Amino acid sequence: MELAYSWTMEIVSCSKYLCSSKSLPIAFLILTCIAVSIYSMVLWRSANVDHSVNTHGNLSLLLKSGEKRFYNFSHTVSPVNSSLDDMADLVPRKKINRNKISLEPCPIAPPGLVGKLTINVQNIIKSVTNDDSLKRVVYGGRYSPEDCIPRERTAVIIPYRDREDHLDILTRHLHNILQRQQLEYQIFAIEMALPTQFNRGILANIGVLIAKETGDFSCFIIHDVDALMMNDKNLYRCGSQPRHLVTGSTKYRSGNNEYGLPYDSYMSGVIALTDSQYTKANGFSNVYFGWGGEDDDFNIRVQRANMKFERPEKDIGIYLAIPHDTDSTNQKNPARFGILDAAAGRQWIEGVNSFINNQLKIKYKRYALEYRKYYTWLLIGINEAAINKQYEKYLGEPFAA
Ligand code: UDH
Ligand code: NGS
C-alpha cells in the first residue's frame, strides 16, 4: 500500500511539473518519443520478415508461414561454433514440393534432353538461352518438376573461393540442364573464408552435412566451380556405385582428342554419391590444405570401402573447363604426397565422421548463410593450424619431418 501511495504521489508531482508552462515542450517531446516507439514496435511485429532468423536458431516460425516467404529474402547468420545440433535449426528439413500425390514418376529417360551442347559462356552470362529455367528457380537455387514425381533429389555441392564469376556461369548452366533432367535439386555453394589455404575436402564434407540437414536428398554431387557439362544426357543421378561423371575435359586436350583425363584413376571434377556411399567411404580427408591430393585420397577411401567409381559413356561425360589463373590461396601443397601415403591409416580417424555424433573432432565457424537467387551460399571458417596439429602423427613422413 505504502509503495502504491508513494508511486501515485510521484506521478502527480511529475504531471504538475510537466503541465507547468515552462515544461510543456519537454512533455511534448517525451510523449512523441513514446508514440514513435509504440508505432515502431507494431510495425516490427507485423513486418513480412521474421527477425528471429537473424539470431542463430529457430526457423520453425518461418516454415509455418510458408516456403515462398522463407525464400523471399536472404539473411546472414552470425559466427557460431557449429555442431550438428546447431545445423538442425539452421535450415528447413521440409522436402521440396511434397504435394505430388496424383502425379506419375518422371520417365527414366527425360524426354527433353538434346545431347551434346554447344556452350557459349557469354550467352550463359546474358541468360539468352535459359531465361525460362531461371525464372522457375526458387530462392536458394532450388527446383522441383511440376508435372511428375522426380526420381532423384540431388544436392549439388560446390566448394569454392574467389570464383564468383565461375559460380554465376555454372549455376545458370546447371539450372538449365538439371530442369531438363527432371530432377528435384538444390545448389549449395560452400565458400572457405580467408586466410587459410583452400581445402576442397573439408568444404565437401561440411557441404554434404549441411545439405542433409536441409532436405531429404538421395544424391550428392561434389562439383568443381569451373566445370561445365557439355552433354545433358550426363544425368546428375546416383548409382549402385559412386560415380565419376567426367570422361573428358577440355582442360586435358591431347593430340587430336578434344577431351581427355590426366590419368586413368583421376576421379575429380564432378562426382556423385549417395549418402550411404559417402558415409561408407567416410567422406573426404580434411587435412589437405592447398592444391592437390584430396581427390586421389578420396579414390583410395572409396576402394578401401569396397566400392568402385563408375563413369558414364565416353561421349557423355564431357566438360568444358573455364580457363583461369592459378589461385593465390591454393598453392601446391608440398606435403601432399606424404599425406597421401598415409591415406589408408587415416581413413577412419578423420573424414566426414569428424563432424558428426556431436563429438565434433574438427571445429569450424559458419560465418554466413544466404539464400541467394541461384544457390544457397555458406561461408565457412576453418583453423588450419589446429587441424594440422591435431592430426600431425597421421600426416606422413615429409610433414612430420
Ligand atoms: N577452388 C576454388 N578456389 C580456389 C581453389 C579451388 O574455388 O582458390 C575450387 C573450384 O571449385 C575448383 C576446384 O576447387 O574448380 C578445384 O581446384 P583446382 O585448382 O584443383 O582445379 P582447377 O581445375 O585448376 O580449378 C587447376 C589449375 C591449377 C593448377 C596448379 C598446379 N598445376
Ligand atoms: C594430381 C593431383 C590431383 C589433381 C590432378 C590433376 O597430380 O589432386 O593431378 O590436376 N594429385 C596430387 O598432387 C597427389 S590438374 O591437371 O587438374 O591440375 O587433381
From TrEMBL:
Q: Which residues form the Galactosyltransferase N-terminal domain?
A: 106-238
Question: Galactosyltransferase C-terminal domain: which residues?
Answer: 257-325
Gene3D superfamilies recorded for this chain? Spore Coat Polysaccharide Biosynthesis Protein SpsA, Chain A
Ranked from the top, the taxonomy reads: Eukaryota, Metazoa, Spiralia, Lophotrochozoa, Mollusca
* Broad EC category: transferase
Q: Could you tell me which pathway this protein works in? A: Protein modification; protein glycosylation
Please verify whether the record's keywords include Iron-sulfur. Answer: no
**Name recorded for this polypeptide:** Beta-1,4-galactosyltransferase
